[in-house]
């Protein structure tokens, strides 16, 4: 209250001392009863609040000032020195214990946020007052002859309500660094004024008459003020009730006049009444404060989410269980060309091209009924300008059947790039497996295909390898030139390719060397096919680039795979058969056999 409310701490200290001294003087002058103790003692509450709101180093100064102030007031009241010293000691111990215990077991940091704070605060105050009452009761017994228990009770009944009521009231009403800072603005001043007028009017109506015990009528306006203003409303309301009720009670008016007994008893009852209604309202104020905190925190997080969602490049969405848009961030407008407001409430499937709707509808139904928890699907959508975009939908089922939500990512450019990369990769793969001159598969492709057939079981249905090369091809290059030789190779490739079936494979595996992979036929059928190829080549005329016409022949070796024969042995047998055909005079087919070979024309 001091260093926070005022920049000049010395002025703050002086104001606290003056206020506490004035309250002490008024209490002793106006409310002292036959026991010699003031009925109302708010001075200690003021000092306790100052100690709680100030650095610990100021505590000694406040305790010393209270000790001196109490001593002077009691000396002026003609008390014996034993009572003066005892009361001074009791007051100092009371404020020191109250401040220390509150700091330890019921800290004032965000104190009105915790419903249990009031209970722990009451325990700390009861303990402090019990110690001071024992000391004060002893001082009265020694100095003035009062009964120790009676003096202790008088002291406790005058100090306890003041601390229980005034300390939390001042804490709630005074500004400070530990006060709760809500994200939203507080109630309008007009609302606060109306509520306080309502509390004051009710208090006047209750305490201005002495015929009916209607103190309970204070509770509705008190609770209403607490509901709207939280702990501050409770503190303001109790302060108003205390001022109005004290005025009428001290002027011997009000429902407490129905209580039989001395005026001190009525004042005690009034203070206990104030403490009771205040401590009933404080937990409610704490609960409402927690509610406001959570509401403000949720609102802040929601605003943060909206702030981030509005800047995310992907579309964030939420749809209800019926599959209608409930939320779309601004990225949707950029992706689709439609305004977000025009799409909310519309079916999700309306944006999807017809051919993709069944798949998304099935996935959406499974997500809604709990069959699956998430979906990841690539579909196409219609933009407002009529173009098609490809998007990836990642959606998750929301709890309690509240539909589903997730994000939508435009993957058109990615799919286009992926397709281009696939085409490039395919082109590279084709180039790596194709002979550039004849466009036939090359050596690498041939042996890859042979390896596949040897491992996938095709060989068991018949697999034959035929190797052939052109007879005297060097003479063609020497006599007609290399362009003519290239033309001959291309012509031979076309001739042989036309003679084989689609399932068979013709490859150029060397300069003038070729290979044929015959799949799915027995030995006799493979021999018949190879014979036709040899004869077709020898019977064909080839027109060279310079217009000359020539004929060429080929020599071929053929090997049908035997049981469990590997690739190398199969190729070796076909190669040996090829060389045997050349040695036998060329322009012929030679079959590899075990243990001998046979030449077929």
Automatic annotation (TrEMBL):
Record carries keyword Cell inner membrane: no
UniProt xrefs under CDD domains: GGDEF, PAS
Keywords linked to the UniProt accession: Cell membrane, Membrane, Transmembrane, Transmembrane helix
Gene3D superfamilies: 3.30.70.270, PAS domain
Compartments where found: Cell membrane
Catalytic activity: 2 GTP = 3',3'-c-di-GMP + 2 diphosphate
Gene Ontology terms for molecular function: diguanylate cyclase activity
Transmembrane region(s): 12-30, 36-52, 59-75, 81-105, 117-141, 153-173, 193-214, 234-255, 267-288
Domain of life assignment: Bacteria
GO biological process: cell adhesion involved in single-species biofilm formation; negative regulation of bacterial-type flagellum-dependent cell motility
EC numbers for this chain: 2.7.7.65
Pfam family, one: GGDEF
Domain GGDEF: from-to ranges: 461-594
Membrane topology note: Multi-pass membrane protein
PANTHER family: DIGUANYLATE CYCLASE DGCM-RELATED, REGULATORY COMPONENTS OF SENSORY TRANSDUCTION SYSTEM
The name this protein goes by in its record: diguanylate cyclase
Organism: Gluconacetobacter tumulisoli
């Amino acid at each position: 209250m001091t260093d926070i409310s005022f920049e000049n701490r010395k002025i703050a200290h002086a104001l606290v001392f003056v206020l506490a001294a004035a309250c002490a003087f008024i209490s002793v002058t106006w409310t002292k009863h036959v026991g010699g103790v003031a009925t109302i003692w708010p001075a200690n509450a003021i000092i306790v609040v100052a100690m709680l709101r100030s650095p610990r180093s100021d505590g000694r100064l406040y305790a010393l000032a209270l000790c001196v102030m109490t001593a002077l007031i009691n000396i002026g009241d003609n008390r014996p020195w034993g009572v003066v010293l005892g009361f001074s000691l009791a007051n100092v111990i009371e404020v020191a214990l109250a401040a220390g215990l509150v700091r330890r077991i019921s800290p004032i940091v965000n104190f009105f946020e915790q419903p249990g704070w009031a209970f722990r605060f009451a325990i700390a105050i009861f303990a402090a007052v019990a110690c001071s009452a024992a000391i004060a009761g002893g001082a009265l017994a020694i100095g003035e002859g009062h009964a120790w228990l009676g003096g202790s009770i008088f002291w406790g009944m005058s100090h306890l309500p003041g601390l229980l009521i005034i300390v939390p009231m001042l804490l709630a009403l005074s500004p400070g660094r530990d006060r709760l800072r809500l994200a939203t603005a507080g109630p309008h001043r007009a609302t606060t004024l109306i509520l306080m007028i309502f509390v004051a009017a009710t208090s006047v109506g209750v305490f201005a008459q002495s015929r009916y015990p209607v103190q309970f009528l204070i509770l509705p306006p008190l609770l209403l003020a607490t509901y709207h203003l939280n702990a501050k409303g409770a503190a303001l309301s109790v302060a108003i009730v205390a001022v109005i009720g004290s005025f009428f009670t001290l002027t011997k008016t009000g429902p407490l006049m129905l209580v039989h007994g001395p005026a001190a008893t009525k004042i005690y009852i009034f203070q206990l009444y104030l403490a009771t209604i205040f401590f009933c309202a404080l937990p409610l104020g704490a609960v409402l404060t927690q509610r406001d905190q959570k509401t403000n925190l949720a609102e802040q997080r929601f605003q943060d989410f909206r702030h981030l969602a509005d800047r995310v490049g992907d579309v964030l969405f939420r749809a209800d269980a019926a599959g209608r848009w409930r939320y779309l961030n601004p990225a949707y407008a950029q992706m689709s060309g439609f305004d977000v407001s025009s799409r909310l409430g519309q079916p999700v499937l309306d944006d999807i091209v017809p051919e993709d709707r069944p798949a998304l509808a099935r996935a959406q139904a499974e997500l809604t009924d709990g069959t699956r928890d998430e979906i990841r699907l690539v579909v196409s959508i219609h933009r407002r300008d009529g173009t098609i975009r490809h998007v990836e939908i990642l959606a998750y089922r929301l709890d309690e059947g509240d539909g589903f939500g997730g994000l939508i990512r435009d993957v058109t450019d990615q799919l286009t790039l992926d397709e281009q990369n696939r085409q490039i990769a395919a082109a590279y793969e084709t180039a790596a497996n194709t002979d550039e001159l004849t466009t036939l598969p090359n050596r690498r492709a041939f042996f890859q295909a042979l390896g596949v057939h040897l491992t996938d079981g095709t060989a068991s249905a018949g697999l034959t390898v035929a190797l052939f090369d052109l007879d005297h091809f060097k003479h063609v290059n020497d006599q007609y030139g290399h362009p003519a030789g290239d033309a001959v190779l291309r012509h031979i490739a076309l001739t042989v390719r036309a003679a084989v079936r689609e399932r068979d494979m013709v490859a150029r595996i060397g300069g003038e060397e070729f290979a044929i992979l015959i799949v799915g036929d027995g030995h006799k059928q493979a021999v018949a096919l190879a014979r036709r190829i040899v004869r077709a080549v020898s019977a064909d005329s080839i027109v060279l680039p310079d217009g000359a016409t020539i004929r060429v022949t080929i020599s071929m070796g053929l090997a049908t795979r035997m049981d469990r024969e590997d690739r190398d042995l199969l190729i070796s047998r076909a190669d040996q058969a090829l060389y045997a055909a050349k040695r036998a005079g060329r322009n012929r087919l030679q079959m590899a056999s075990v243990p001998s070979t046979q030449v077929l024309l």
